[in-house]
Amino acid sequence: MEQNIIKSTTGVVTNILSLARLGDSKLWIDYDEDADVLYVNFGKPQKADDSYQENGIIQRKKKNKLIGLTILDSSRFEK
């Protein structure tokens, strides 16, 4: 299993770098396995004042700036 993870790392790193460039200098990622929810925060996690959901992905904004994503049923993206 570890070898499969290592082989898929190149695409994952590219996607993570793209996400990191959307926000502040730090990218915080947390996964709640029980709820199957992936949290991606651009900068230190903070409360949003607006949000928009499409296809189970919640975009969270503060002062009209994207501060994070909440990805519901995130295991559906596994190959």
Could you give a short description of this structure?
This protein is α+β, with helices and mostly antiparallel strands and 79 residues long. It contains 2 helices and 5 strands; from the N terminus they run ααβββββ.
Could you explain the architecture of this structure?
The chain is built from two helices and five strands. The protein is an alpha+beta fold and 79 residues long. The chain has one domain (2-77). The protein has a five-stranded antiparallel sheet, with no helix packed on it. Strand 1 and strand 2 (37-42) form a beta hairpin.
Number of helices: 2
Task: Give the beta-strand count.
Answer: 5
**Order of strands across the main sheet:** 1-2-5-4-3
Arithmetic mean of pLDDT: 84
What is the percentage of strand-forming residues?
Answer: 35-45%
